[in-house]
């Protein structure tokens, strides 16, 4: 697998991948990414594409994974991470998504591993990757822990615009 930055003209591909994941989430009786199904994520996609902060994972030039990965803390990140300040350079990972038909193959784990290598090579030495995950999403919490992320805390009862939940906080350190 190779990591590359998404290009501005790939906005539709990013949106379609996120919509596919949002539909899979909805089919599991969760409203977590329901705003994506209504195209409310498009301004966010455009924002991060403009900052070269959306990344694809590719196998044989086929995009199989996407995520946002950025240094600039958003209001969301500040709310979740305010009790965990650091002077170490950080990247914030959000919206990790696999393409339709790619789940259940270990590709999310592979993507995270290759992304970590990419960060080591392309960002300041020692840069952390931070992410959050709804506490009750056992499978995702296990994925992050098995991919070298360590749980560093939990922010209780945060409203993400769709639902109120406890969010586990994870860091990966090179």
Automatic annotation (TrEMBL):
Pfam families: Acetyltransf_1 (PF00583). GO terms for molecular function: acyltransferase activity, transferring groups other than amino-acyl groups. The lineage of its organism: Bacteria, Bacillati, Bacillota, Bacilli, Lactobacillales. This is N-acetyltransferase domain-containing protein. Residues 25-149 form the N-acetyltransferase domain. It comes from the Bacteria.
